Each structure stands twice: as C-alpha cells, then as structure tokens.
Amino acid sequence: MTNWTAPTYPRDQCAIAGIGASDFSRASGRSVLTLAGQAARAALEDAGIAPSAVDGIVRCENDSVAHNDLAHVLDVDELTYWGSVPGGGAAPAAMIGQAVAAIAAGLARTVVVFRSLNGRSGERYGRGVAHGAEEVGGNGSLDELFMPYGLLTPGQMWAMMFRRHQTEFGTSGDALAAIALAFRARANANPAAQMADRTMTRDDYDDAPMISTPLRRSDFCLETDGACALVVTATDVARDGPHPLCTIRAVAQSAPRGMNPAVMFPALLRTSLTTQPSAGVARALYRRAGLGPGDIDVAQFYDCFTPTVLMQVEDYGFCAKGEGGPFIEEGSLDLDGVLPSNTAGGNLSEGYIHGMTHIAEGVRQIRGTSTSQVAGASTCLVTSGLPIVSSALVLTDGSEVVST
Amino acid sequence: MRPVTDDVDTEGFFSLAADGKLGVATCGACRAVLHPPTGICPACGAVDVVWRAVAPTGSLVTWTVVERQVNEAFPTPYTVVLVALDEVPEACLVGQLPGRHELVPGEPMVAHFDDDSVLPQWRRVDDRAASPHPPAGQTQGDGA
Q1: DSSP string, B84-134
Q2: Is A81 a known active-site residue?
Q3: Which domains are delineated in chain A?
Q4: Of the listed A81, A286, A302, A316, which one is catalytic?
Q5: CA-nearest residue of chain B to A208?
Q6: Could you report the predicted ipTM of this complex, rounded to two decimals?
Q7: Does the annotation count A9 as an active-site position?
Q8: Which one, of A381, A382, A387, A363, lies nearest residue A373 by Cα?
Q9: pTM of the entire predicted model
C-alpha cells in the first residue's frame, strides 16, 4: 500500500516576469537563431534580468533553434535545465507548464520559453508538407491515406471540420466573419501587428478569395518571420521586478482517448469533429486553477483559422456546444463584449508565431499595458493550438496568492 | 502523387484495394476496429491485425471544395470528401471528386477501383444530379 499523495498544482507560484519579441515581417533577412536571440534578450531586459543568469530553456520541438544554440547567444553562465514540447501551435502553454514544473522542482530559477520561425520567407506551413513530393506517407505518418486525395493543408482540414459544425448545428459563416473582423480591429490598434495599418470591412472579408470552401483567405492566419520569448521565474522573484505581477495560475495539457495518432489528418477520423481536445484541456485547467469560464476577464484563443475560435469558445465553456455561432455573432469577442479576445490581433492579424504571442498579450492584459486594454482585467485565458492535442493556461494578477 | 503502399501498418489497405476491395483493419483477438490502422490493438494490446473487406458504401460526413491550388499534382477545383462506412460507421475514409459539387450531408457514396490508381476512389451514388463544374460561388455553403 502506498501512502503517496499527488501534490496540488503550484497555483500562482510562478510568474511571467518578462516578455519580448522581434519585429514581425514577411522577410526578416535574419536567421531564426538571431530572431530568437533578439526576442529572448528583449524579454530578459523587460524582466530586469541579465541574460547570463538564465539557467533554463524550453523550446518547441518544431523550432530549428536548439536549447544550446539560444544559450550560446545569450552567453549564459550555465544552463542546467532544458526541455522541448512537441505539437507546433499546441505547444506554447505546455511549454510554460514545463517551465513551471522545472522551477517548482528546483531544476531551474530563470527559464526562457521561446518560439522563432521564418514562417514566410522560410518554411511555409500553409503549403503543406507534400510540396514537391512524388510519393507521400509511410513511417507512421498515415499521410498515405489522405494526401493522395489532395487533402494537403491544415486549412483544408479545418474547412471540413467547420462544414461539419454547420451541418450539426446550423452555424452561419457570419460567425467566422465576426471573428476575423474583431481580431483585425484589435490589430489595427497594435502598432507591432503585421496588419496594424490594414483595416478590414465586412465587404473586404467577403471579397477575399475562396481558398477551400467555406473558408476564404480572410479566415486564414498570417505567415510571419519573427520570434517571441517569455521569462518564467518564481513569483517571489518576479515580485521584485519592474512590472505589475503576472502569475501563472495553472497550466493544462490534454490528449484525450481517441485523439488518433500522427501529426494532423487522422484528426478527421474521430468520432466528433466539433468537440476538440480543448474540451479536455478546459476541464483540467479549470480544476487546477480553481476557476471557471465565468471568472475569465479576457481571452487569447489560438486562431490559425477562424473555426478554431468558434469551437474553443464552446469547449472552454463560454457557451454551450453548438451555440458558438450565435455567441460570437452577438459581438461577444469584441472589446466591449462579454469575452474580449485576441486583443493584439492573434495569429489572424498580429502575426503567426505559432501561438507564443498570445501568451505575451495575456501578460500585457494583466499588467494593464495592452493596446486594447480590458479595464480591470485580472484573469486571462490563453489557449494553444488544436486539433491533435492542446494546452492552455490562466494568468492572474497574483492577488489570490496564498503566502506560505 | 503516389501513396506509400508498403508501410507495415497500412499495406493491407492497399493490397485489398488492388483486388478491388475496401479494407478495414480489425483486431484478430478482440475484434475491435483499428481505424486509423495500427499494428497493435489499442483496446487489448494484441498484435494480430486482420484486414477485412467491407461493403464499399458509405455516407457523406463533410467535404470541402479546394479552390486555391497548393500543389501542382492537384489542379483546382476539386472536392475532398469524408465518408463514414455503412458497414463500419465508426470508420471514415477520405476521397476526392473532380471539380465542384453541390453535396448534401449524409448523402450516399460508393467506392470504386480504377486500374490506373492504387487508391480506392469515391463517387456520389446519384451522379446524374451532379454537375462537376458549377460556377464558382454557387457551391453549397459558400456563404462563409
């Protein structure tokens, strides 16, 4: 018989002490390592921490910058912890979770979490991995069952998932337009956004070329060269920093039974195409955080394509399953709505750094420094990508931290 | 674009297709459907895959008309369909119809096998109603 009891989640015990990013562009002219170094140094300067003091790094498995690459350009004294998280856009919140776990376990004190990519001038994910290939599949990819039929890109897959949502619930395309227009308006207020100067009207949305029905170009995210980095420390360390405190209330990951193997397309073979792994993330996250959807002041939803937002507002409990369309059409995601969302513009209009900028914007909301600030925001939900597996976190102002 | 047909976990699908049959992997020990195909059964752990031929009919779950070409091997427009098998409703397969189609959720689909392809292909059961190239913008559900 064991008398071991699982420890409770270290709520609010760690904080995001610094945020930083490179510029976002279509052609950086720099290596991904240079971009990562710029973003990490900006985040450390923001935190008031010397780069040499970094002792932990968490990277995304899809990143071509390795932990020792970044440690080298930060000239760190000694790196004693590193980890990487798979899953591309699904990784960022889980990466923060790794940093929290490392700090809570005493493996590191100052952890840099980053994502860097030349997503426009280098490898373009939106073109699909089969570009130029004469033979596809094998090695457990299962691509041989999908790509030879011309199913090649994540956008085409999300088009099919949204069509299913329309079939099951009668969802209107107006919901997707409302998402794209709201996030573009937030980007227009954010000088750092790629779409800062590009307004979008409903006519602009409707006039965009059809890519894969029913999704238009205006339902697709940007392709971006850039990097974003975050500095995670113990809350007691961050408390002495230059900014209002932003603590990590809780982080959760979920890969539910029946998620299916491989990287992308087998998600189409699931029992449901309209309930995503986000539903499992939400259950674990709210339990760990001791909070519910009614406690969330502002949200940053992973938005590689507009339908991901539609399904997440349902999965995270802001409305019932199937009611995401009407919920969004009534302006819920606008700055004056019940759930102001993607207040920097998101993947759709700020830049596509694979979900990492969503966390940085969450920190700005808690600090009170967003270019689309939600008055009095003290809790922010930040989600990472789907549909394979997913992760999310809740940031707070630390006001509920129990001193020990 | 050719599929790899000799992967150890999926080759049964292609070898049955070469005989004009639609295959679904099942566990020889507990009879669970292994879809997508895996070499080890998620339910019981047995390594005993049996590929069985099932009726080549199904119903349409969802679809998309691809309008923006991303790969020279697939000139647009074309329609990608997801079909739930009548005999094994928990198993879905992807197919492609040439051109644009006005489809109806749940409509019946049937698989066929062409000599020039190692892949099963799907078509609508009532193809007389299908217009392979209606004008862009008139495809059902394009009002997003």
Answers
A1: EESSSTT-EEEEEEES-----TT-EEEEEE-TT-SSEEEEES-GGG--S-P
A2: no
A3: 14-121+220-396 (3.40.47.10)
A4: A302
A5: B144
A6: 0.94
A7: no
A8: A363
A9: 0.95
